[in-house]
Amino acid sequence: MAGETRLTRTSDGWLGRFTAMASPCEVQLRDVSRSTAEQVLKRVAGEAWRVEQRFSRYRDDNIVAALQRANGEWLAVDEEFERLLAYADTCWQLSGGRFDVTSGVLRRVWRFDGSDRVPSADQVAALLPLIGWDRVERRPGQIRLPAGMELDLGGIGKEYAVDRALLLAREHTDADLLLNFGGDLVADGKTPWQIGIENLQQNGVAGQIPLARGAVATSGDSRRFLLRDGKRYSHILDPRTGWPVQGGPHSVTVAAARCTEAGMLATLALLQGAGAEPFLRAQGVRYWCLWE
């Protein structure tokens, strides 16, 4: 899903912008020529668009759509898709079934647009038979998804794209580099960038993180929620019940070595509800939880 890129000069380097995976994306570089910055921007954007094309649930011409059309038959998959499926399996196991890439079917009744349209218990219950990662069969080079079920890799795809893009960018330069895909970031340099932690509840920034090397990812319900009779419904759904997780923070930000790791831990923490912080402390990572 190729698009446009824009490159501008900044006080200490270059800033490249593009849109991918329904998110604003940025590439920041220090101490490189314009031609190098253009090469890096082109490679990073190209990889983001490639990952989106291959694994987005919103397309009808990729492996995710083909799997749904297979109607319960075995389908051949390549090595990259197998790695993502293995990672999804790891997330499912670590979360005790709370992270489930087959739970995207719940979006048929849950639309987190800030309105008060909460589905009925019967509407949610009708979808639960279509959820269950443990029902998906895998063998080397193949996968079988029960008829009627879907895969949604949105919970890991953007972070995967960030990590992949960094590897490709490093083929062109060893200069200080920061990639930001819709708030999921990775930095690799000598001088840190100041990364803001957004707090939409207070219409501002909750704090800043100095980041020279490593990744930061945030997951939360600041933008996606429902509000009915004074009760807020988070877009973080428990696939075991089909209902939003209650009692957790509005957002969780995690710093880790890779963006996939940071994103996974942020999401798994939110799925713990009130147990988000004890979960994160047990992982031994830096984190920030916004409760109000």
Describe this protein's structure.
The chain is of the alpha+beta class. It has a domain of 89 residues: ApbE-like superfamily (T-fold). Helix content is 30%, strand content 31%. The chain is built from seven helices and 15 strands. The strands form four sheets. An eight-stranded antiparallel β-sheet has the order 1-2-3-7-8-9-14-15, with helices on both faces. Strands 4-6-5 form a three-stranded antiparallel β-sheet, with no helix packed on it. A two-stranded antiparallel ribbon has the order 10-11. β7 and β8 form a beta hairpin. It is globular, with a radius of gyration of 19 Å.
Structural class: alpha+beta
The helical percent reads 25-40%
Q: Kindly report the CATH topology of the domain at 63-151.
A: T-fold
Q: Within the largest sheet, what's the order of strands?
A: 1-2-3-7-8-9-14-15
Query: Which radius of gyration do the C-alpha atoms yield?
Result: 19 Å
